[in-house]
Amino acid sequence: MSAALTSADLTDQIEVKGRSLFADALRRFRGNKAAMLSVVVFVLITIACFGAPYFGLRSQDDVNYDLILAAPDWSQGYFFGTDANGRDLFVRTLYGGQVSLMVGFVATLVSLVIGVTWGATAGFIGGRVDGFMMRIVDILYSLPFIFFVIMLTVVFGRDMLLIYAAIGAISWLDMARIVRGQTISLRRKEFIEAAEASGVRTHNIILRHIIPNCIGPVVVYVTLTVPTVMLTESFISFLGMGVQEPDSSWGTLVSEGASTMEQAPWAVIGPAGILALTLLCLNFIGDGLRDAFDPKDR
Amino acid sequence: MLRYFLRRLLGAIPTLFLIVVISFFMIRLAPGGPFSTERQVPKEVEANLLRAYHLDEPLWQQFLRYLGGLMHGDFGPSFKYKDFSVTDLIAQGFPVSLQLGGIAIVLALLIGITLGITAAFRQNSLLDYTATGISMLGIAVPNFIIAPLMTLVFGLMLGILPVGGWGGAKHYVLPVVALCLPQIAIVTRLMRGSMIEVLHTNYVRTARAKGLPEIVTITRHAIRAAILPIVSYLGPAIAAIITGSVVVEQIFGIPGIGRYFVQGSLNRDYTMVMGVTIFYGALIIFCNLVADMLYGLLDPKIRYS
User: Fold this and answer.
1) How far apart are CA B280 and CA A144, in angstroms?
2) CB atoms within 10 A of CB B40
3) What angle in degrees, to the nearest 10, is found between the helix axes of A266-293 and A21-30?
4) DSSP secondary-structure letter at A82?
């Protein structure tokens, strides 16, 4: 794009506004109806979950003994019905969403930091260091991680912080590979050479030049990591090894709902539906971003 | 080829060793011994118990003992099922898990590949959109949601399939479907993408131009190239099926390894959890290896040496 801009400037002196990669990507993303709709739905779900305490709803542990496993009743405000303790499932789903979404974001952040640093370092330094660092990634790749995460929760108890960290620590591998590939192709570019020639230190080159130029693929991958991570958390919680009472996450709610399914099918449908909808939205957003950043891939 | 295989097999040893080390020491870090959760026992009894399980020895000695046992396929005694060794339990559960997982993966491949090819040929048609839409759903909706919903519909509302247990052919339906749906989704997507790409290549155009019947073009030329991404996905697919089987076995009450693993995790049967982790770790490594070899056989551009 910049080449077009300069040649236009040189020939007719007409003011042409350059289009950056991001502006281009954004334009393409806006045109993707499924992705845009997903953004709206996802934002609404997030606001609903984190705003739940301010909407004047029931509290998540308000017990109503007259309404145990009651069917959804819109006039009373029980949109998803009640659970086996007479608690409002809609409210519980919103509060559970706080936990699930937080796990999604925090664990993704952990994986982002580790993965980007690892990949950029390996790719930029290259040679033996690269070989060694990527060999570690290869070995870690073949470990049965979900089993290790479960083992961690067995051994160290069910600490939320630990679950965040554990899930984050296992999802950085793909990120490291992507960033490494990107870095290797970048490091032959002239501007890196120029930075090296003018004596910029290695870690500054990585931080200032390499990482900012990897942002496209990284953003795409981050949006695809969030649903994977949320899935892992709900998987563990579903098995009864993640979030514990009185807290809940979408995984525990689906699990509880499944256990009372015979008397109250709605108890599983509400939380499961919201979880599925969120995951679907995140996947659509991720796909949309990938198409936007990499149009030839379509 | 054989040399490459052997080299890879040797290369798997450090990974396997790492799995054993991590699991062993992680379990030993657990607060409280394996018997501390039970009711209070007299000191002498506890000391005897510890001695019986060699827990009174120094850690490195315990580790060597465990490692030595592993060489003979002995995963040690289960801490909770007193009369069984972990090896017994794995030997009992594995045939069940293998059947379930095997059927699921074969079905996922057959259905996924067929759907993917069909969608690729009718690109941007209603059928294509349906197939990609469904596969998106299959990727986003985890099997622990699909499984209860299917039980609800087919088991409770329609009453045509058993909601759990293990035995006749009917018992296979729901667990297998729950296991393979997400994989069908992914395989369909991969196959559609690579088929579209292959259909645009010059050699497919040449094959068509020289008048080969479409069916021969597809089966002889297109599929062989388009199937490669699926082969390289085989390893992750098997890992995903194994992970999925943990939750599916739990939901449907199927006596496979996954169920033992979950039970073991819930009642802190440390040796059980460790044994299953190591066993499945080894299995996943082996399957990855086989998938890589298969890839080499199918792709003429890759020669292992």
Assistant:
1) 7
2) 8
3) 140
4) B
Contacts of B186 (CB under 8 A, 6+ apart): B112, B135, B138, B139, B233, B237
- Residue A7 confidence (pLDDT) above 60: no
Coil, helix or strand at residue B78: coil
Q: Which residues is A82 bridged to in the sheet? A: A88
**Subunit contact A235:B144, Cβ cutoff 8 A:** yes
Number of Cβ within a 10 Å radius of residue B65:
14
Beta bridge partners of B77: B85
Q: Could B29 and A152 be called an inter-chain contact, meaning their C-beta atoms sit closer than 8 Å?
A: no
Separation of alpha carbons B185 and B134, rounded Å: 7
| Contact flag B15-A284 (C-beta cutoff 8 Å) | no
Residue A18 has pLDDT above 90, yes or no: no
pLDDT single digits (tens) A236-251: 888 887 777 777 888 8
In a mutational test of the A interface, the residue from B179, B196, B234, B265 whose CB has the highest number of chain A CBs within 10 Å is B265
Cβ atoms within 10 A of the Cβ of A180, count? Answer: 25
Distance from CA of A9 to the nearest CA of B (A): 39
CA atoms within 13 A on the CB side of B82: 3
User: For residue A39, what pLDDT is reported?
Assistant: 93
Separation of alpha carbons A109 and A281, rounded Å: 19
Q: How many angstroms separate the CA atoms of A14 and B84, rounded?
A: 84
Nearest by CB to A272, from B27, B149, B281: name it.
B149
Chain B nearest-CA distance from A269, in A, is 8
Rounded to an integer, what distance in angstroms lies between the CA atom of residue A104 and that of residue A49? 14
Position A297 scores a pLDDT of 44
- State pTM to two decimals: 0.79
Contacts (Cβ under 8 Å, ≥6 apart) of B82 = none
Contacts of B182 (CB under 8 A, 6+ apart): B138, B139, B141, B142, B143, B146, B240, B244
User: What's the gap between Cα B81 and its chain centre?
Assistant: 25
Whether A144 has its CB under 8 Å from any CB of chain B: the answer is yes
Q: Which of B101, B183, B104, B181 is nearest to B145 (CA)?
A: B181
Q: Quick check: A234 and B268 CB within 8 A?
A: no
Looking at mean pLDDT, say which of A151-165, B99-113, B239-253 comes out highest: B99-113
Rounded distance between C-alpha atoms, residue A101 and residue B86, angstroms: 37
A223 to A105, A181, A217, A282, B141: CA distances (angstroms): 10, 19, 10, 6, 16
Do B142 and A234 lie within an 8 Å CB cutoff? yes
Do the chains contact at B30 and A155, CB–CB below 8 Å? yes
pLDDT of B200-217, one tens digit each?
889 889 998 998 888 888
Place of tokens 């950056």: A20
Once rounded to an integer, what is the mean pLDDT over residues B243-270? 86
Q: Is the pLDDT at A5 greater than 60, yes or no?
A: no
* Mean pLDDT calculated for residue range A128-135: 88
The distance of B26 to chain A (nearest Cα, Å) reads: 7
Contact B230, B113 (CB under 8 A): yes
ipTM for the predicted complex: 0.77
Beta-carbon contacts below 8 Å between A and B: 121
Across the interface, whether the CB atoms of A239 and B281 are under 8 A apart is answered: no
pLDDT of residue A35: 87
Which residues lie across from B85 on neighbouring strands?
A: B77
